[in-house]
Amino acid sequence: MPIEAHAETVTLRTALRELVALSTMPAAWLGREPHTIAAGLADVLVGCLHLDFAFVRLCDPKGNTPIEVTRGDAWRGLPRWLQTHGDGRGQFSWKEIVTDLGGGETYRGIVIPIGVNATGGLVAAASIRADFPSEIDQLLLSVAANHAATAFQDSRLMSDRCRAEEALRESEHRWRSLTEALPQLVWAAKPDGTSDYFSTQWTEYTGVPESELLGSGWIDALHPDDREPTRQFWADSVLGRRPYDVEYRVRRRDGAYGWFKTRGLPIRDSEGKVVKWLGTCTDITDLRRAEEGLRQSEQELREARSELEMKVAQRTADLWRSEAHLAEAQKVSHTGSFGWSVSSGQIYWSEETFRIFEYDRANKPTVEFVLQRTHPADKPFVRETLDRAARDRKPFDFEHRLLMQDGTVKYVRVVGHPSAIEESGKFEFVGAVTDITESKRAEESLRRSESYLAEAQRLTKTGSWAWNVRTGALFWSQEILRIYDYDPAKMVPTWADFLGRVHPEDRPGIEQRRKMESTQKDWVVSESDFRIVLPDGRIKQLHSIAHPVMDESGEITEVVGTVMDVTERKLAEEERERLRQVQADLAHVTRVTTMGELTASLAHEIKQPISAAVTDAKTCLRWLGRDDPDIAEAREAASRTVKDAMRAADIISSISLLFKKGAPQRELLDVNELIREMIVLLRSEASRYSISIHGDLADNLPKIMADRVQLQQVLMNLMLNGIDAMKDMGAGGELTINSQQSENGQLLISVGDTGMGLQQEQAEQIFDAFFTTKPQGTGMGLPISRSIIESHGGRLWAATHSSRGATFQFTLPSEGAAHQAA
User: Fold this and answer.
1) In angstroms, rounded to a whole number, what is the distance separating the alpha carbons of residues 678 and 655?
2) Phi, psi (5° rounding) for residue 804?
3) What is the average per-residue pLDDT within 706-714?
4) Helix (H) and strand (E) counts in the chain
5) If DSSP states are collapsed to H, E and C, what string results for 367-418?
6) DSSP string, 218-266
7) Which pLDDT does position 799 carry in this prediction?
8) Cis, bond preceding 702 (omega within 30 deg of 0)
9) What's the whole-model pTM score?
10) Pairing outcome for strands 666-669 and 396-403
11) Which of 58-67, 158-167, 190-199, 622-631 has the lowest mean pLDDT?
């Protein structure tokens, strides 16, 4: 009994020693590789437990290849045994003791799973001892297996941690590189919201070092109005651990502020805990400006949309009306439409096309159908054109005639364009047929008009021309070529040809006119007179009128005009000038003759102021010859002498003007003053026949632009005619001169007498040359007077009275009326 107790004590002590040794193994395995741990366990088991065989399998929970270590060869059949036991995959839910391992010697074995269902691996041991495995063996194997599993997992965890830390460092490096490459401003913050990173873009944009931005320093870079709202919003996002999305203004390094949209996201671990904040700031300054512009234009867009909707509605209504009136429009324009399928030969006609061809809509149109209406002379041409179009599949445009059933002829224009139908693969033409009969007639009429125009130019000796200012090209009508004596069939006009005909003295003016017409823009019409010299030496007088043609930009592109041969007119004007001079000479002779007849009266008229002047002079001498001279009376007598002398001088001046011969000289005149002068000159002549002269002159009459001598001649002629009509009547007559202003602003002068008067048929006849009612008359006084009045823009006529006497009236334009008429 004591011996057994001693043996048991020794066994327990040995077990405790081995248990202590096994307990130190995890510390030795700390930081070791998994294979080293497995090998160490196998070695310890063999050494401590005096085993003949040890097998250690350590499994990775992540599914990596298990680590297996074998020591000894006592249990060679273990792999096969593992395949046939457990679940077939070497997994056990409990330990299993194997009493017979096979072979020549008797080995006993045990398999202990590590973890549930051997998920952590297993330990297998074998020994030749008969009591193997004892409870102590099983306990020590289990403890050793668990220590190994724990060390294995710690090693795996440490390895994973190292790899994770290395991956984290690499990831952070890549992240920083990525943020530096992004165009946005990137930032990061700790879980409590304290900023711990700002990208280079942040510091470059703000000009603030990163050290000053960390923590909450970045708030100072914001616009003052945005700092507090942004601070509060960021605090709320950190507290609520929700995404951060805000817009604010950041101060740029130059002091200007730009708008940024900032987004921040919380980064969470596997348990949902926030471990980091990452965010970006995107520059939206341009977007803000665009939004502002968009807001400003929203009203305009709404108005434009409203206007567009109205226009669309109007356009839709217009389209409906257009579609409703399409058939009527074709009818009005005499244009029908058609479609021609080349492959099938089918032809579609609109209603207007049927009307043009005068076919009933019940008929089915074909090419032969068209040819039946075609004029016989045009059929070959039409057939050839249609065949070529069908063969070449190219557009066609031609005109031909139709012969209708009633024998009338129509002209039509046919236009067709190819159109392929993709679905069916067929080829067809679409086009239009226009009845151009009226336009053909208009063209014929135009040709006749052009012929008439050419004939009219030939009769009036007026040609037309055009000059392209940009190209220098000239166009001359046939009549200009005839005027310049050029052959129309051989002549292409140039400026050299034109200048070659111009008279040498007139060429500088033509060159100056050409420069003005091509460079100046403010001229409307240009007129010039020049001469040309023909090859035979004849000289022609020409008159040219031109006006510019401008493009949309106001530049002169062309000058067009006319040239008229005025040689005959110039000769007629010279002849008319010669006749005018003869008429002026005749008027002068008439004045001189009349003045000769008035010599006695004029002498009497002049004698009166001279006699009065002599009397006044003698009176002045008597006042001065007294012992006490009366200077005042003498001065008064001398003044009367001067006045009478001046009156005599005025009469003589008026008479001398009537005798003067020269060119007309027009000036502003007071017509009432002229009338009074003539009354003074002719008062003595009228008094010889007991005729009184009465002037009824309107006040404030406007002045007239006229020749004094010519108007004096007219008044003298009319007043003397009145005196002659009354001098043989015996009783005293009355000559009345009136002046007034008519409603149209002209002056109306009338000279009336109480003589025998005129017969009705003589009222116009007396103005014919050489017609007279006086025995000694020349018949030239009234014709000359009428020509003088008409040359002043007035009119002279005679009016008969029912009782007796006659009245001669004439009108003269006042200065204002003359300017307005001009």
Assistant:
1) 10
2) -155, 165
3) 80
4) 24, 27
5) HHHHHHHECHHHHHHHHHHHHHHHHHCCCEEEEEEEECCCCCEEEEEEEEEE
6) GGGGB-HHHHHHHHHHHHHHHHHT--EEEEEEEE-TTS-EEEEEEEEEE
7) 83
8) no
9) 0.31
10) unpaired
11) 158-167
